[in-house]
């Protein structure tokens, strides 16, 4: 995770445009800079007088001392009780939901506002960084993950609220008796809650994590800490490699306010003109084509300095004849919530291309700046960006926290600084398959196969399934949906190869996958060039389901053709498959094959499908079917029959589903909810939800699979699929959930759910007031250095698959007549 310097790892909330997830977003290859001992020696004659006025507490956003830095979140002392995150109730939120009428429990913002619920989720991500039990470089990564989360939240969710505010949407409410926040109120509450979180994030980084890293030989330095020789070496790098790329931008009547890119660090430079005594302001954008971190190999240990500091220290080269009075770093965020008019579009591809162009020049939604930036400059930025004072977020630490983990870690870092490496295992059923093109299909015919990523390999399961199908001469057709995948995707290559081999290949590429539009457009064009029939999605709906259909010629199959299906909970993305927990089901069940055929007729052609044999498909009937399942559990509870509901999703924000779960609790149905992200349901409220428990598992892997279990009077029904219980997933997306009927595979699903529900290491539990807590015993370990935060449920799953792999190896050795002592234990892996 984060090992590739060309990648960003994001932990998305389930309330943003994509499910809560770590997402590897590859950027265009950036140029890296490095200061070697040879570079220091070569620059020995250069002057080190930067000509920059002393900026006091910070240098281009980096702390010179700890003045003004907030205090870290207080570690609880023995007997203090559980750890609570967020530390206090979110602004505008009621402690007791029963203060609102029962008919508003699922819609009232003071009970659980979705945006504030997302911020509560990000607090739990940040808690992994705050905890000294987490390895120190992983703490740095979780600070960055929380920062990237916040960037996307601002672009999408805050951007959407600003559009509503500009449109006067609060004046369109018909029923003013419903306790809802106006967009303006939500923006006020979000700003208040976010600033508290940013302070905690900054304190954790500056006061705790950076000093701990330095003690272990990894230093992110402030420029004034460098030696004169190092400053001279960096000045030469500036003159040779940076100055030609930089464009100083004056701000005066002859120079309008310049274009500033989204999420790019900029420098506001205050100048004094000795010719006329006037004060001037200029803007300098730090080039995003350069990697932020410059490594100082001449220094002992592993030392890095940020690019913006090098530029700030050499501004005299850019503003000749001027006196540089001060320099202040800032960063802007633009709105990514662009209005779409799909119904009016003649071509979805053209519409998405236009949208990407619009996003580049979208309105601003946030300004981040140093805490010591003069108010006059802040006022100028606020006016030019058409924002309000509440949209300014000052910080006593470096900007762009999302980039803070971007240092190149390929230098033999001490293993104790990170989580021990986990290497995915090949599932035993895939090991059993013959090493032939047809062997994998022969194994699936023996019975359904389940792969659990990242504990079991994506490469030797899903990727191999598509690759073998592409090469198998008996395969006649392949159909697939693609929502997100990675650059140089082997799935894309396999599908292209299949088309070039003369197979009928059809792929639906969802162009509207937020922030992945450009990548998906490129994939679609590459597939079309290979002869693949490509559909761009459905007007008004996002296609979020994960399905692949392989049609194979087999003599013993009815009509000579047999269908093989892959149905998954995660994307066809090898990169995220290494850090997301997801499930892949491989089956040749004729009923499921018929359903997936009908699904692709709906996705690629003109076909209305109201019902399916086994699949639950949104937006047609998925929500209604789930509601009926809960109703059945309510009826069973009233009759004294076994009843119960277990749900594992990324987000639970559907009022219809929450209302029915409250009814189930009041009827005596035990409900266990494993919701990693936002959940608007409050558990344990007397008379409302005493029988409901809500937990959230946060660890080194992102919990991403969606699982459902209904007790069904002692005959449990299990489902897995792509859909969260959110209104957008159930009613505005194409989602697929499949039943899992094999008893052995059901046991695997039960193990996954139990591991979260019984976890005492990395699983938070929601209180009736909407905040999350760690039990006291767990909280004590959280604040103990080296205790291993992130072990728990995911550690248990690693151990489970290692044991299973070892048992398989012993059975195989016995079959081959090998002595048992020849079967050696696998090297320790996992957490």
Structure, explained:
The protein has 831 residues and is of the alpha/beta class. The protein contains 20 helices and 33 strands. The strands form six sheets. Strands 6, 20, 24, 25, 26, 27, 29, 30, 31, 32 and 33 form an eleven-stranded mixed β-sheet that branches. Strands 16, 17, 18, 19, 21, 22, 23 and 28 form an eight-stranded mixed β-sheet that branches. A hairpin with a 6-residue loop joins strand 29 and strand 30. The radius of gyration is 28 Å and the shape is globular.
Major beta sheet, specifics? 11 strands, mixed
What are the low-pLDDT stretches, counting only 5+ consecutive residues below 50?
1-28, 825-831
Helix and strand composition category: alpha/beta
Number of strands: 33
> What count of helical segments does DSSP give?
20
Protein topology:
Layout: E1 7-11, E2 22-26, E3 34-35, H1 37-42, E4 58-59, E5 62-63, E6 83-85, H2 114-130, H3 136-167, H4 183-215, E7 218-221, H5 228-242, E8 249-251, E9 265-272, E10 279-285, E11 293-296, E12 302-306, H6 307-313, E13 323-334, H7 348-360, E14 364-370, H8 375-384, E15 392-395, H9 428-432, H10 439-445, E16 449-453, H11 459-471, E17 475-482, H12 490-500, E18 504-509, H13 517-529, E19 533-535, E20 542-543, E21 547-553, E22 561-568, E23 580-587, H14 590-604, E24 616-618, H15 622-638, E25 645-649, H16 655-666, E26 671-675, E27 692-697, E28 702-703, E29 706-710, E30 717-721, H17 727-731, E31 733-740, H18 743-757, E32 763-766, E33 772-774, H19 776-782, H20 793-815
Parallel strand pairs: 3-11, 7-12, 14-15, 17-18, 18-19, 20-31, 23-28, 25-26, 26-27
Antiparallel strand pairs: 1-2, 4-5, 6-33, 8-10, 9-10, 9-13, 11-12, 13-14, 16-23, 17-21, 21-22, 22-23, 24-31, 25-29, 27-32, 29-30, 30-31, 32-33
Helix pairs in contact: 2-3, 2-4, 3-4, 11-12, 15-16
């Amino acid at each position: 995770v984060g090992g590739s310097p060309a990648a960003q790892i994001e932990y998305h909330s389930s309330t943003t445009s994509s499910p809560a997830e770590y997402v590897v977003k590859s950027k265009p290859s950036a140029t890296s800079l490095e200061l070697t001992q040879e570079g220091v020696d070569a620059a020995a004659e250069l002057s080190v007088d930067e000509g920059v006025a002393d900026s006091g507490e910070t240098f281009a956003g980096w702390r010179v001392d700890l003045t003004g830095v907030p205090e870290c979140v207080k570690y609880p002392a023995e007997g203090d009780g559980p750890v609570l995150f967020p530390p206090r109730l979110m602004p505008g939120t009621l402690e007791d939901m029963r203060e609102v009428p029962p008919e508003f429990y699922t819609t009232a913002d003071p009970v659980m506002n979705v945006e504030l619920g997302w911020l509560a989720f990000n607090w739990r991500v940040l808690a992994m960084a705050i905890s000294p039990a987490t390895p120190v470089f992983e703490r740095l990564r979780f600070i960055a993950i929380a920062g990237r989360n916040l960037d996307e939240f601002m672009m999408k969710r805050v951007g959407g609220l600003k559009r509503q505010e500009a449109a006067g949407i609060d004046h369109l409410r018909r029923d003013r008796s419903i306790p809802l926040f106006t967009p303006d109120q939500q923006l006020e509450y979000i700003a208040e809650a976010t600033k508290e979180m940013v302070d905690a994030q900054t304190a954790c980084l500056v006061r705790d994590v950076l000093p701990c890293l330095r003690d272990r030989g990894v230093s992110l330095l402030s420029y004034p800490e460098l030696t004169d020789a190092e400053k001279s070496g960096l000045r030469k790098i500036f003159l040779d490699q940076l100055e030609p790329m930089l464009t100083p931008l004056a701000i005066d009547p002859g120079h309008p306010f310049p274009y500033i890119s989204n999420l790019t660090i900029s420098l506001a430079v205050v100048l004094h003109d000795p010719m006329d005594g006037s004060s001037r302001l200029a803007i300098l954008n730090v080039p995003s084509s350069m990697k932020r971190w410059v490594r100082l190999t001449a220094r002992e240990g592993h030392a890095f300095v940020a690019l913006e500091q090098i530029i700030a220290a050499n501004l005299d080269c850019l503003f000749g004849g001027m006196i540089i009075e001060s320099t202040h770093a800032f960063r802007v965020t633009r709105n990514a919530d662009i209005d779409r008019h799909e119904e009016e579009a003649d071509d979805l591809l053209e519409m998405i291309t236009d949208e990407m162009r619009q996003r580049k020049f979208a309105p601003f939604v946030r300004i981040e700046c140093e805490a010591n930036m003069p108010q006059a400059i802040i006022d100028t930025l606020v006016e030019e960006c058409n924002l309000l004072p509440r949209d300014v977020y000052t910080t006593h630490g470096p900007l762009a926290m999302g980039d803070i983990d971007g240092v190149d870690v390929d230098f033999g870092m001490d293993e104790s600084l990170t989580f021990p490496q986990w290497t995915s295992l090949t599932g035993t059923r895939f090991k059993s398959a013959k090493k032939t093109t047809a062997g994998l299909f022969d194994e699936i015919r023996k019975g359904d196969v389940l792969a659990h990523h990242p504990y079991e390999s994506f490469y030797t399961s899903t990727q191999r399934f598509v690759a073998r199908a592409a090469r198998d001469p008996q395969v006649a057709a392949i159909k697939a949906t693609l929502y997100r995948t990675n650059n140089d995707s082997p799935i894309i290559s396999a599908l292209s190869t299949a088309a070039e081999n003369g197979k009928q290949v059809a792929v639906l590429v969802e162009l509207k996958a937020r922030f992945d539009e450009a990548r998906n457009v490129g994939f679609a064009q590459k597939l079309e060039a290979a002869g693949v029939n490509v559909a761009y999605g459905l007007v008004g709906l996002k296609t979020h389901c994960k399905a692949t259909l392989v049609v194979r010629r087999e003599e013993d199959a009815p009509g000579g053709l047999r269908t093989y299906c892959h149905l998954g909970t995660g994307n066809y993305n090898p990169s995220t498959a290494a850090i997301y927990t997801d499930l892949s089901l491989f089956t040749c069940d004729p009923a499921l094959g018929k359903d997936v055929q009908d699904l692709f007729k709906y996705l690629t052609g003109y076909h209305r499908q109201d019902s399916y044999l086994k699949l639950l498909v949104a937006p047609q009937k998925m929500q209604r079917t789930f509601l009926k399942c809960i109703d059945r559990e309510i009826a069973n509870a009233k009759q004294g029959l076994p009843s119960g509901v277990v749900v594992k999703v990324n987000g639970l924000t559907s009022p219809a589903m929450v209302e029915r779960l409250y009814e189930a609790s009041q009827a005596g149905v035990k409900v266990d909810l494993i919701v990693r992200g936002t959940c608007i349901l409050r558990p344990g409220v007397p008379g409302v939800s005493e029988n409901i428990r809500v937990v959230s598992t946060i660890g080194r892997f992102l919990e991403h699979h969606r699982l459902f279990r209904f007790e069904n009077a002692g005959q449990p029904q299990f489902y897995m699929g792509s859909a969260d219980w959110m209104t957008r997933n159930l009613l505005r997306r194409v989602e697929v959930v499949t039943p899992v009927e094999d008893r052995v595979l059901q046991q695997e699903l039960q193990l996954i759910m139990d591991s979260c529900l019984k976890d005492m290491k990395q699983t938070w539990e929601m209180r009736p007031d909407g905040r999350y807590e760690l039990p006291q015993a767990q909280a004590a370990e959280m604040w103990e250095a080296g205790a291993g935060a992130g072990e728990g449920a995911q550690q248990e799953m690693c151990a489970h698959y290692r044991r299973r792999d070892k048992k398989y190896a012993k059975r195989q050795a016995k079959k081959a007549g090998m002595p048992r002592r020849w079967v050696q234990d696998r090297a320790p892996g996992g957490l």
